[in-house]
Write a structure and sequence with these properties.
By secondary structure, this protein is an alpha/beta fold. The chain is built from eleven helices and eleven strands. The longest helix has 27 residues.
C-alpha cells in the first residue's frame, strides 16, 4: 500500500464521494478510482459499496482500513509539526466554520489578536449554517466550529465562549418595546420575519410548534436566515423577528430596535467552540481555543 493510495482512500471515505475527494486532494477522479481499485486488489475485497447512483458506504473491511488510515494520517501530521517546531520552522493551518453573522461580527477582532501572536498560521474561514458546521466537524473537514450548544451533539468537545439568549426584535417605539414579558398571542398579532420554512433553524421550528399548540394564526412577512438583513426590515416596521444574542455586547445597537426577553419560550444557552479532540492539539490550535475562551469582543448574534 502506497502513501498516496491510503490518503486518497481516506478522503473518499471521509467525504463519501470521489468527486469531492478529487477536489480536496487536487487529483482527478479517475486517479482516485484507480488508487482505490489497487487497494481492493491488494486486500482482496471491496472497500466501498455503492448505494444508488451517488451514495458510497464503507464495507466492513473499508471501515477497518479507514480507521487505520485516519490514525496514521493524524499521527503523521503530529510528528510533522513536532519536527518542524524542533527545527525552528513555524507552520500551521487551521480551518474554522461558523454561521455568517458570527464570522462577520465576532471573529474579525479576535483573529486580529490571534494572528498578531501567530502570524505564521494559515487560517481558512468557512461561512456555513449551524447544521453544516456540525457535520463538517464530525467528518473531520474543519478543525473548529462555532455553534449554539444545543446544536452540538455529544461526542464532540465543546468549549463555552459566551452566554447567549434568544430575544424578540421590535422597532424602537413599538407597543411591545417596553414589555418585560410577552406571550405568543401578542407576538402573533404582528407579521414576522423568520428563517425559511423547513430549515434547520431551531427558532423557526420551535415557533411553529408553539403556535400550533396554542392554535394561533400567524403570518410570515419575510423569510431570511440572515439576522443582519432581518434587523433592517424590523427597523422599517416590516415585521418582528428573533435573534440569539450575547447580552451586553449587542451588535444590533446601531439600529433603532428594542430587544424583548422571551426566555420563557427559549431558555438561555451558550455559544460554543466545537472540535473533535481525538488527540492532543498542537500548540497554536490550543492557543486558539484558550484565547477564544477568554471572551468575545465584540460579540455576535448567532444565526438561529
Amino acid at each position: 500500500m502506497e502513501w498516496r493510495q491510503m490518503a486518497g482512500f481516506y478522503h473518499v471515505a471521509r467525504l463519501g464521494s470521489f468527486t469531492r475527494a478529487a477536489g480536496v486532494t487536487f487529483r482527478t477522479q479517475s486517479a482516485l478510482t484507480q488508487q482505490v481499485r489497487a487497494l481492493e486488489e491488494e486486500f482482496g475485497c471491496p472497500l466501498f459499496e455503492r448505494i444508488g447512483k451517488r451514495r458510497l458506504i464503507l464495507t466492513p473491511a473499508g471501515e477497518k482500513l479507514f480507521a487505520f488510515a485516519k490514525r496514521t494520517l493524524e499521527e503523521y501530521e503530529r510528528v510533522l509539526e513536532e519536527i518542524q517546531a524542533h527545527n525552528g520552522v513555524q507552520r500551521g493551518h487551521l480551518t474554522v466554520a461558523a454561521p455568517f453573522t458570527t464570522l462577520y461580527r465576532l471573529l474579525p477582532g479576535f483573529l486580529e489578536t490571534y494572528t498578531g501572536r501567530y502570524p505564521w498560521v494559515e487560517i481558512s474561514l468557512l461561512d456555513r449554517p449551524q447544521g453544516e458546521v456540525v457535520e463538517m466537524i464530525k467528518g473531520g473537514r474543519v478543525d473548529f466550529g462555532i455553534t449554539l450548544e444545543s446544536a452540538a451533539p455529544g461526542g464532540l468537545n465543546r468549549v463555552r465562549i459566551a452566554r447567549a439568549e434568544t430575544v424578540l426584535l421590535v422597532p424602537a417605539g413599538h407597543p411591545l418595546a417596553g414589555a418585560l414579558r410577552v406571550d405568543l398571542g401578542e407576538i402573533a398579532r404582528y407579521p414576522l420575519i423568520l428563517p425559511p420554512a423547513g430549515s434547520e433553524y431551531p427558532v423557526r421550528r420551535k415557533l411553529e410548534t408553539l403556535f400550533a399548540k396554542e392554535k394561533l394564526a400567524w403570518r410570515v412577512a419575510m423569510e431570511s436566515s440572515n439576522i443582519e438583513l432581518s434587523s433592517v426590515y424590523v427597523e422599517m416596521g416590516f415585521g418582528l423577528s428573533f435573534a440569539t444574542v450575547v447580552r451586553g455586547l449587542n451588535v444590533l445597537e446601531r439600529r433603532k430596535l428594542a430587544l424583548v426577553a422571551v426566555d420563557h419560550y427559549f431558555p438561555p444557552e451558550h455559544l460554543v467552540l466545537v472540535h473533535r479532540g481525538e488527540r492532543d492539539l498542537p500548540g497554536y490550535k490550543s492557543a486558539f481555543v484558550d484565547l477564544l475562551r477568554q471572551g468575545l469582543t465584540p460579540a455576535s448574534p448567532a444565526d438561529a
